[in-house]
């Protein structure tokens, strides 16, 4: 399997506090990779550094063999990296349709953009039903679907998702994870940060466990799901 994304010895600080300590991991083409760990472990910081929102003190981010550590965020989108941020961050005063259009800001072909919107509607029929509704009036689950749909509009090679199931009802959590599996089947690689470690490990190929900014465990998701220490720390019901 070809390596799509490599994170090498990443160190990130907030002022004097070190949030990420020598983090290294790889994501292969077509994989779903989960980053799991408790609150404050550095999961969101890792994603934000990959997508150019934070600058590392040292380390490298390699995407498709190219060093993209200092590439600005909008250029990374053009290269094929999309980010579904924690907390959804939809444009609440714009309609569902307008939010989706904004997701295609790196593209020019109008008919291709409209085809992508139709594809998003096929994956998320509820968004089509509410296409003229203001995004701020959607339920939490619908806003999450919109954030994912918007990220798909740039036709990404890899999607980084930060806590997609946060605050959702069990039924919607089920639906969101089903959609992530569909995204993978469609050929998009997924790097998933998720508080719901149980669910994440059920759909991931491999996983890394972050603790206070360092990777303390890695392996096949199925093995980590049955790992005694992981179960105790993250999978206790």
Describe, in plain words, how this protein is organized in 3D.
Helices cover 38% and strands 27% of the residues. By secondary structure, it is α/β, with parallel strands linked by helices. The chain has one domain (3-234): P-loop containing nucleotide triphosphate hydrolases (Rossmann fold). A six-stranded mixed beta sheet has the order 6-7-8-3-9-10, with helices on both faces. A four-stranded antiparallel beta sheet has the order 2-1-4-5, covered by helices on one side. Helix 3 runs parallel beside helix 6. It is globular. The two termini are 35 Å apart.
Relevant terms:
single chain, 237 residues, alpha/beta, Rossmann fold, six-stranded mixed β-sheet, four-stranded antiparallel β-sheet, 10 helices, 10 strands, 27% strand
What's the helix and strand layout?
Layout: E1 3-14, E2 17-28, E3 32-36, H1 43-50, E4 58-63, E5 66-67, H2 73-79, E6 81-84, H3 96-102, H4 110-123, H5 125-129, H6 140-152, E7 158-162, H7 170-185, E8 189-193, H8 197-203, E9 206-211, E10 214-220, H9 221-225, H10 228-234
Helix pairs in contact: 3-6
